[in-house]
Amino acid sequence: MAATYWFHDEAASWMPERLGPLPEHERIRVYLIGREALEYHITGTLLESLPRQPMQNLVHGLPLQLMAEEVALLLELATPAVPWHREAPGVNAYDTWADARQAAVWSFPDTALEWSCFHVYRDLWRRGWWLGSGLKFGGHYLVYPDNPRQCHSTYVATVSLPREQYTFTHLVRLGRLGTTNYWLMKAEPESRIVKGKDVKFSIDDLAAMPNATSCWDGVRNYEARNIMRDRMHIGDRVLFYHSNCKQPGIAGVAEVVREGYPDHTALDATHPYHDPKLKPGDENRWFMVDVKLVAKYPRLVTLEELKRYKTTHLSEMVLLNRGRLSVQPVTRDEYAFIHALAHSDEAHVHADVE
To answer: What is the per-residue pLDDT across 56-82, written as a single tens digit (0 to 9) for each?
Structure first.
């Protein structure tokens, strides 16, 4: 049976019920106070904001949703030294792993893979590492040398069963997980006719392409060209930005599926992006990459909204400091923050900031 598990500060009395998909009698809840979360290397995932402690404060931005491994570890460690807090009489709370299993509300770890994952998690935890979910990078865990709020992960841990077989391409992909780069690329979502052709290209146009894949041609800026030619790699993530339109903003995420190669449109005199400075026989100096749609965001993260965070989370973002560059780098933290914004309720996020 599935369970919902939370960690939050003992002083916080508010817990949004919409975050708990299961009835009260089917939940198992684990409570620690903030300083003990650090002591026990509890990472969790920031989900919401408490009324007086908004998510923008990463130290107090609670509650956290715990990984199943974190809950299992805490239940295994349960002793008088670990401060478990019962909410109220009549509400289920379990002090040990065995109690939770006996009540049939907790089964992790159960399968062979779950047991393997838990043993790997516990072993790394005992060695002093901090662990978070590695789902975003295709692994089981991100492994940090210290508090994840203060540093980047050192490794991506992937757990496999003893007889599981890997192909060569799968091993290569695993080797690239920790080197993913992030970019922002601009396209025009509204019609504009150049040389009798419409250069409009929105995220919906990308979705309509065969296999939702297209070349990214027409870049005629040397700095942007150099990024595509020298720095973009297969698997890199791209924030798809709608530019030169009534409401500019980030519409979704794409992935680089072919690394830099010559942009043939620069040599085509009939093409809107023809480079008139190139003469017959000249070496083509312009490059492009191929990108594939990963996901369209549930809402557009507008430029106006991004500017609200220019003095906080996005203070160094190239888009907000050198806006005209059509292909630009994005840090991992900026990408994660924008990704979270896109999946948040806009009014709720703005209320927290204010």
So the answer is: 444 444 556 778 888 788 777 764 444
Which candidate, 144, 139, 116, places its Cα nearest to that of 128? 144
Partners of 32 in the β-ladder: none
Collect the ranges in the chain with pLDDT lower than 70.
1-39, 45-64, 78-97, 100, 105, 136, 138, 150-151, 164, 166-179, 345-354
Say what the pTM is. 0.52
Q: What is the DSSP string of 214-244?
A: EE------HHHHHIIIII--TT-EEEEEE-S
- In total, the chain counts a number of residues equal to 354
Q: Is the sign of the CA dihedral 324, 325, 326, 332 positive or negative?
A: negative
Asked if residue 145 has a cis previous peptide bond (ω within 30° of 0), the answer is no
Supply 131's token pair.
Answer: 């662990």
With vertex at residue 160, the alpha carbon angle to CA 159 and CA 161, rounded to the nearest 5 degrees, is 135
- CB 177, CB 233: distance < 8 Å: no
Other beta carbons within 10 Å of 314:
22
Rounded to the nearest 5 degrees, what angle is found at the Cα of 182, between the Cα atoms of 179 and 183? 145
* 3 state SS of 138: coil
CB of 174 within 8 A of CB of 181? no
Q: Are 337 and 315 in contact (CB under 8 A)?
A: no
Domains of the chain: 1-108 (no CATH), 116-178 (3.40.1350.10), 180-353 (3.10.590.10)
| Cα dihedral 315/242/244/317 (nearest 10) | 10
Give me 129's structure tokens: 């590492």
Tell me how far the alpha carbon of residue 243 is from its chain's centroid: 23
d(CA 189, CA 54): 34
